[in-house]
Specification:
about 250 residues, alpha/beta, 5-stranded parallel sheet, 7 helices, 5 strands
Length: about 250
């Protein structure tokens, strides 16, 4: 092989190697960015230390998606309502995450007695705050998804969920209905966790529902079994609420 042919041959080898590695780098750089989901809500949703018995359903959403496709950031906080979550700056922090989707579940603390600072009225300011969550989400290009509050697991003598309110709390049903009305008004998907959790609780009955609780006689909060049950109910409605996320779900 002459010197000229050798140089041409080596040049071709270098070109092939360079092309291979640059293509590989581009392919690696073109890996799709995971879809970002932010969850906001209250104690029935939030993360808890594993040393405590409480669990929120938001803790069990990440595992439902294929690895690397979705990042779930659970910013729900115990004791917060639509009003206090905003006033404490938590909503601003949630928007700063630049999410693609925002799951919004409030109602339990909104339904506290009117004298409480976190309380809102289902027919007035609760709806106004929900409208703000929706408008602010859309303003940053995120898709809001409303999630109605699940029932308190309080039963009447016939094994049916009490919907009229209990122990000075106002009826959660009114907050769930108000959220659905806002969803219809603003054309936002609503996952009706109130209705599905009511059906589940009445199917299980008082004794079965008690097995979902974090502590004896706690009819609001959950242990892992209960939180996973709520996550199951949320995920069952997700394909309808967010069809684009279906491809990223693990096979059940």
């Amino acid at each position: 092989m002459t010197d000229m042919k050798l140089r041409s041959f080596l040049a071709i080898i270098v070109l092939v190697i360079t092309t291979f590695f640059s293509s590989g780098s581009r392919a690696a750089g073109d890996m799709p960015t995971p879809i970002r989901i932010v969850i906001v809500g209250d104690s029935t949703v939030c993360n808890y230390p594993l040393t405590r018995p409480q669990r929120g359903w938001g803790m069990y959403i990440q595992e439902r998606f294929k690895e690397g496709t979705v990042d779930v950031i659970n910013l729900a906080a115990s004791g917060r309502s639509t009003k206090t979550f905003i006033k404490e700056g938590r909503w601003k922090s949630a928007l700063a995450q630049k999410p693609d989707y925002i799951f919004i579940q409030f109602g339990h603390n909104d339904s506290h007695p009117p004298t409480k600072p976190e309380a809102t009225d289902a027919a007035t300011d609760y709806k106004d705050y929900l409208r703000r969550y929706i408008d602010d989400s859309r303003a940053i290009g995120a898709t809001p998804i409303l999630v109605t509050p699940m029932v308190r697991r309080d039963f009447d003598a016939h094994g049916k969920i009490l919907e009229s309110g209990l122990q000075n709390y106002r009826s959660l049903r009114s907050y769930a209905d108000a959220m659905k009305e806002v969803g219809l008004e603003k054309k936002v998907a609503v996952i009706d966790l109130y209705t599905s959790s009511k059906a589940l609780a009445e199917k299980l009955g008082p004794a079965g529902s008690a097995q979902l609780a974090d502590l004896p006689d706690d009819s609001t909060h959950f242990n892992e079994k209960g939180a996973r049950a709520m996550a199951d109910l949320v995920m069952q409605e997700l394909p309808k609420a967010a069809p684009k996320l279906v491809v990223d779900l693990k096979t059940p």
